[in-house]
Amino acid sequence: MIGFALTGNAQHDGKTRVIPMVIRTIGISFQKFDGLNSRIANLPQYKELRDYTGVLGLGWLKEHNRVVSTGNLMAGSSLSGDRDKRSSTIRYLGIDANIGYDVLAKESMMLYPLAGIGVQGYQAIFYKDNSAVAFNDVLTSPVIQNNIRSVRFTNAFVVYKLGLGFSLQSPKYPSNSIGLQAGYTGSFKRQDWKSNEYQTLSGAPDDKVSQFFVGVVLTSRPWHMK
C-alpha cells in the first residue's frame, strides 16, 4: 500500500493527478478438478474436494482517459467434510494484471470489461479420520505417526482472465466506492498434479483451471482523504 501511494503521488498529467486506487475484494470462485477428484472417489478414507472456494483479494485499480488497469493478489480456500476428522481442503494463491475500458465515462460510476493474464498455484490436502487412533500409540510409534499424516498435492497454472466490473462512488465519501466484479479464469493447458515438494509423480492425474468468479470490490484513495 505504501508503494501504491508513492507511485500515485509521483504521477502527474498537467493539472490532473493519476492515482491508483486500492481495491479489496471478497468473493467466491467455482472450480472442479475432475482429474484429482476421480482418483479420490475410489478411496473412501478421503473426502473429495469442494467445487467452490472463498476468495480474498488485495490490489490496485487505475483509470486514465477511460482506460482501466488493475493488478490483484488473491487467496482462496475451501473445506469439505468434518474439520476434525475426514476432510479435504483446496487452497490457492494467484496474481494477475488486467486492462479494460470504462464504457460509461461518468464521474460517479464505472462499467468496465477486463482482460488479463496471471499465475495461480494450488495445494490440495486430504485428511483421514484418525479419531479411533490412540494418543499414546501416536506418541510412541513413528509408523503410526506417518500413517495419520495428511496427503498433499500441488499444481500451478498460467491463466487468462475475462471479466466485467462495475463500481459506484459514495456520494458522501467520494474517495470510496463499492462495486462488483465477475468473470471467467482459464488455463492455457492441462497440468499434472505433483507432490507437496513439487516433484513429478508417475501416472498423476491432470487438470486445468476453468473457474468462474464473482466478488464485492471495495475501492478507496486513502491518500486523498486529507
Please, could you describe this protein's structure?
The chain has 226 residues and is mainly β. It has a single domain, classed as Porin (Beta Barrel), CATH 2.40.160.20. Helices cover 12% and strands 53% of the residues. The chain contains four helices and eleven strands; from the N terminus they run αβαββββααββββββ. The strands form two sheets. An eight-stranded antiparallel barrel has the order 1-2-3-4-5-6-7-11. Strands 8-10 form a two-stranded antiparallel sheet. Strand 6 and strand 7 form a beta hairpin. The longest helix has 9 residues, at 2-10. The chain is elongated. It starts with a helix and ends in a 6-residue tail after the last strand. Mean pLDDT is 87; it is low at 1-17.
The chain-level structural class is mainly beta
Task: Compute the number of helices.
Answer: 4
Helix content: 10-25%
β-strand number? 11
Uncertain runs are 1-17
- Summarize the main sheet: 8 strands, antiparallel, barrel
Topology:
Blueprint: H1 2-10, E1 21-30, H2 34-40, E2 52-64, E3 67-81, E4 87-101, E5 109-127, H3 135-140, H4 142-147, E6 151-169, E7 176-187, E8 191-192, E9 194-195, E10 206-207, E11 210-220
Antiparallel strand pairs: 1-2, 1-11, 2-3, 3-4, 4-5, 5-6, 6-7, 6-9, 7-11, 8-10
